[in-house]
Request: fold
Amino acid sequence: LAKTTQPISMDSYEGQEVNITCSHNNIATNDYITWYQQFPSQGPRFIIQGYKTKVTNEVASLFIPADRKSSTLSLPRVSLSDTAVYYCLVVGGYQKVTFGTGTKLQVIP
Amino acid sequence: DTAVSQTPKYLVTQMGNDKSIKCEQNLGHDTMYWYKQDSKKFLKIMFSYNNKELIINETVPNRFSPKSPDKAHLNLHINSLELGDSAVYFCASSLAQGQETQYFGPGTRLLVL
Reply:
């Protein structure tokens, strides 16, 4: 299983762009990189998934370099409501999904 | 309509009791999961079922017994509850295993006294 490493916590001011980087050095060829968001007292919610290069949706962008050993979740112009824990996962095939410790993002007014 | 629902939302009980948590998904997914999130917020998978068949069974005490009566339901029964079982339990479902997006329920907050 590809293990992921991400910062435990980050602070950001409202309106700033936030980048959260995740390391996954032993990612396998058929693995995808997936990010989830969890608000207090709620279950995790899917944000974005990618395999390589760049993926963008209405919520975030995901940047994956060519070697795929890391990835960066980019949240444009964060607001207070983006305060949450963000999990980086590497998933593929029929292996189990493993959530790491996540990054606790605190957005400051 | 709620995609993944769990009941009850809160569960307070005494040590030694037996309790069940129910989960239902109306997404037509084939795979369902149970996760445990402890006080330190670590989210750990407990079980995974695919088409009513057990696929993943992590190192969970055998006091925990999942039951899938049909593809849309995955219930969790816990015997002889212990203090350490206090946690938030999340049910989730996905179209299939692997990289498919998982949809989580709202969680069941279990407190064992």
